[in-house]
């Protein structure tokens, strides 16, 4: 499990008078489950892009355990992300021409590695998320099933952190609840830190902590918002 430490982060775009994201300091404990909320345009996706290394910042430090990903060039950030981050996105990011199993194995295939030694874990994860037909084409799956494929895929390489951007937003209430349960349970079982951007109150209230962004700034976490996770404190 990975902890995050951000210092003096500022993300600016040309033509904008103020940074779209400005975080003087933020600490996320290893193994904690943290929600990020805020109105549209408040910087949530920008934060996801920065902490996963999808985008680079030249201002500030973004340290996961001992690695400041802000200092890494793109190829090393990509390698670091493949090794350490499980990503779950609102619109699944699955490949239509592939089966469910092939999609789960994709992170290994994309690193030009043999998938043979990962098939067992891929099948176990798929069963864990409740998918029985591993060879089913993605195009024939329901949205809830697709997101469960994405959750299994995110966990394939035993990431230190799972980052989910609106993972339940395009699902109906029932499928959203299943996906929320799976994210919380699997992050705990697999010992991964969980960072979830969400407007889904039922998901947010089950996290250990909620960070609220307004206009690119973290507004104070309300007193009492920090709760001990099930099984005791995790710090
Ligand atoms: N490449 C860019 N160039 C200029 N402005 C940008 C760029 N990327 C993001 N922004 C601006 O940064 C701000 C934060 O955007 P961001 O997508 O992080 O917000 P968000 O909280 O994820 O919004 P939403 O909930 O609507 O997805 C917005 O005002 C957006 O217009």
From TrEMBL:
Record-annotated ABC transporter domain positions: 4-235
Keyword Transcription regulation in annotation: no
Pfam families: ABC_tran (PF00005)
One MF term in the entry's GO annotations: ATP binding
InterPro entries from the UniProt entry: AAA+_ATPase, ABC_transporter-like_ATP-bd, ABC_transpr_LolD-like, MacB-like_ATP-bd, P-loop_NTPase
Domain of life according to the entry: Bacteria
PROSITE patterns: ABC_TRANSPORTER_2
Keywords: ATP-binding, Nucleotide-binding, Transport
PANTHER family: IMPORT ATP-BINDING PROTEIN (PTHR24220), TRANSPORTER, PUTATIVE-RELATED (PTHR24220:SF659)
Protein name per its UniProtKB record: ABC transporter ATP-binding protein
Organism field: Kaistia terrae
Lineage: Bacteria, Pseudomonadati, Pseudomonadota, Alphaproteobacteria, Hyphomicrobiales
